């Protein structure tokens, strides 16, 4: 056995131990959300375990141990003077307020949802074939919807769309729009509410996502939205759409080149493609050095994004960081697009936004 530097060994073991703790904490954080523990603490202020258990109608012993774990990992504050627990203002935003831009509960839900697929990942590594999003279950679709819903419902229409020349006026006058990879249709509904003269068609290949989208559309009461299963009813190649949107879709696609070509063929020569995708850099070395989201992006890629992109034998498997700006410019030009412009949008730390025209 080779000799180790004891201090270096201890430091590395501590680093790995922190990762184990993080994995356990994902499950316990999601539990706190599902049981309303964070929301109750946020609303009521400092409470002891008995008070929190009473307010949430849960067993005090279970609540107490959960509080101990949360205090140790410093997601919940502990006040020893009166044995009470409370949330900082920052914790309220990240853990209790679904509408806050910093809220991350949807990410926890997505992470826990894909735990069930870990047992089958060795076969993916051996065969090269990944899992579709439906393979990961409804909870994964729900978690992804929660991760993106705040932007799509609160910021897409008032903040992002006006940054594209002439787009808002076009939508007000009434045009035909395809929201490709619509998921739970949060973005589709947000646009449809504000632009009733326009017609919106949501496309997706996930049955879980389409079911959620139908429920969300019915709940919203919008009448200018329809849904298509893109497998049975793909984008038409008749240049009939004035606007096509894709929000974090291309890097997940098994055949991104074919999808981009289909978008071009279904878009009018005067049309616009609004494309959002994960911020990345052209090389791993650049991401390792300069991308603060690289670790979480590559983690999601193995477990979710690249896996989806490899869910067919000939899948491209771009991965979470695989549709960076340089790749996007090249692939869109090859598909027949001639104009490509980045849209500055600082509030979103994860995504880059592109205005792409024929």
Explain the overall architecture.
- The chain folds into two domains: 6-95, Orthogonal Bundle (Arc Repressor Mutant, subunit A); 115-357, Rossmann fold (3-Layer(aba) Sandwich), CATH 3.40.50.
- The protein is 50% helix and 15% strand.
- The chain has helices spanning 6-34, 37-44, 49-56, 60-72, 89-96, 105-113, 121-127, 138-160, 167-173, 186-194, 207-220, 256-266, 284-290, 294-309, 325-334, and strands at 77-79, 84-86, 176-180, 199-204, 225-229, 241-247, 267-278, 339-342, 351-357.
- Helix 8 (138-160) packs parallel to helix 10 (186-194).
Tag the structure with descriptive keywords.
358 residues; alpha/beta; Arc Repressor Mutant, subunit A; 9 strands
Task: Please summarize what this structure is.
It contains 15 helices and 9 strands. It has helices at residues 6-34, 37-44, 49-56, 60-72, 89-96, 105-113, 121-127, 138-160, 167-173, 186-194, 207-220, 256-266, 284-290, 294-309, 325-334, and strands at 77-79, 84-86, 176-180, 199-204, 225-229, 241-247, 267-278, 339-342, 351-357.
List the helices and strands and how they pair.
Layout: H1 6-34, H2 37-44, H3 49-56, H4 60-72, E1 77-79, E2 84-86, H5 89-96, H6 105-113, H7 121-127, H8 138-160, H9 167-173, E3 176-180, H10 186-194, E4 199-204, H11 207-220, E5 225-229, E6 241-247, H12 256-266, E7 267-278, H13 284-290, H14 294-309, H15 325-334, E8 339-342, E9 351-357
Parallel strand pairs: 3-4, 3-6, 4-5, 6-7
Antiparallel strand pairs: 1-2, 7-9, 8-9
Helix pairs in contact: 1-6, 3-4, 6-8, 8-10
């Amino acid at each position: 056995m080779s000799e180790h530097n004891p201090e270096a060994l201890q430091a590395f073991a501590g680093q790995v131990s922190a990762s184990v703790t993080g994995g356990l904490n994902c499950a316990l954080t999601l539990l706190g959300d599902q049981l309303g523990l964070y929301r109750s603490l946020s609303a009521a202020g400092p409470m002891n375990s008995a008070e929190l258990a009473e307010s949430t109608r849960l067993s005090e012993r279970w609540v107490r141990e959960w509080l101990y774990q949360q205090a140790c990992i410093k997601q919940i504050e502990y006040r020893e003077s009166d044995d009470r627990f409370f949330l900082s203002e920052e914790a309220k935003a990240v853990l209790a307020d679904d509408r806050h831009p910093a809220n991350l509960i949807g990410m926890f839900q997505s992470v826990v949802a894909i735990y069930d697929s870990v047992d089958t990942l060795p076969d993916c590594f051996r065969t090269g074939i990944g899992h579709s999003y439906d393979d990961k279950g409804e909870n994964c679709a729900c978690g992804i919807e929660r991760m993106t819903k705040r932007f799509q419902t609160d910021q897409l229409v008032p903040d992002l769309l006006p940054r594209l020349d002439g787009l808002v006026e076009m939508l007000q006058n009434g045009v035909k729009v395809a929201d490709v990879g619509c998921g739970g249709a949060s973005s589709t509904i947000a646009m449809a509410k504000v632009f009733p003269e326009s017609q919106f068609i949501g496309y997706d290949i996930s049955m879980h996502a389409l079911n959620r989208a139908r429920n969300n559309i019915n709940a919203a009461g919008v009448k200018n939205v329809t849904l298509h299963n893109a497998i049975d009813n793909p984008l038409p190649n008749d240049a009939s759409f004035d606007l096509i949107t894709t929000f974090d879709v291309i890097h997940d696609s098994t055949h991104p080149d074919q999808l981009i070509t289909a978008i071009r063929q279904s878009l009018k020569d005067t049309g616009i493609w609004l494309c959002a995708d994960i911020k990345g850099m052209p090389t791993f070395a650049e991401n390792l050095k300069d991308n603060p989201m690289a670790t979480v992006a590559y983690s999601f890629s193995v477990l979710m994004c690249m896996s989806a992109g490899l869910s067919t034998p000939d899948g491209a498997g771009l991965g979470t960081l695989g549709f960076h700006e340089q790749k996007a410019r090249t692939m869109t030009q090859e598909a027949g697009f001639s104009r490509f412009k980045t849209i500055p949008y600082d509030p979103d730390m994860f995504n880059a936004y592109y205005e792409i025209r024929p």
